[in-house]
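Recall the central idea of this unit: under ordinary conditions, the amino acid sequence of a chain determines the structure it adopts. In this exercise we apply that idea directly, starting from the sequence alone.
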Amino acid sequence: MIEIDGSYGESGGQILRTAVGLSAVTGKPFRIFNIRSGRPNPGLKAQHLKGIEAVARLCSAELKGARLGSTEITFLPGKIKTEKLRIDVGTAGSVTLVLQALMIPAIRAPEPIEFEITGGTHVAWSPTTAYFRHVFSEYLRMMGIEITSETVRYGYYPKGGGLIKVKINPEELKPLILEERGKHIKTEAWSNASRELMKACVGERQVNAAENILKLDKKNIKYVSSYSTGSSITIASNFENCFLGASSLGARGKSAERVGEGAAQKLKKTLDTKATMDKHMTDQILPYLALSRNKSIVLAPELTGHAKTNIWVIEKFIDRNFKTQEQKNNVKIEC
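Accordingly, the structure predicted from this sequence is:
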């Protein structure tokens, strides 16, 4: 039984998502305590609970202590199976954070697998579904895993109610050697807003503000039906060898211009380094680097607290060694 102190390092939900996913893959049971102790409201929130329960269903795990607000659980995994899962977070809790836990065992399923997750698709402190599709899924494709996804319904804070459908074709993971970006191909933006914001041209204004900072080769603007008023923009720069992305969310009192500028400034900050992944993608790719058989090398713009904590969790489950080296304008991460 692996013992994990959830108060370690960044002390957020990332520890839990990585631990549950790797437990399902490796077959190693674990107990985690002090869950999210560093957060204003410690313990399991709806998106954490739904993610854990979904992984438990996927691998027929015995799960103890899993309830809202719980600060300790025990997870005893069984065998990963192929099952079409429908998950309703029940709030605006992030569908992509639920996916972060599910994707790790999904790549080891015996056959192609499908998920339908209802909740928040464009909400704070989580990747947008556009980022999942146009950045995360592209890196997994480079590692040999084909992922298709569709945002069927958009869910903004506070009501959520969005829906994403995802299909994964599991394969043996290939390593990543990404020490150069290669030639720039295009920079593309995906701007969305709820329909009541169409008259104010929020989608267009987000894109125009972003373009004041970064040249956009392609612009996608969409107005959608949703239970809550909201907006978002995701931008990705596609190079020969990598995809660098950033997102920004609308909020009450926040202008569309600030939303567009926010995403563009974050992406520009990454582009000004020599990184082959943005910092959020670096955090998310680490378990997959550890699960691939051979050596991987990626360049991150910085080594975040999330990344350090994720490495700490991964090394508890998998006998792989991560090395990090500060370089000019980036951090080299070797697994």
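The mean pLDDT is 96.
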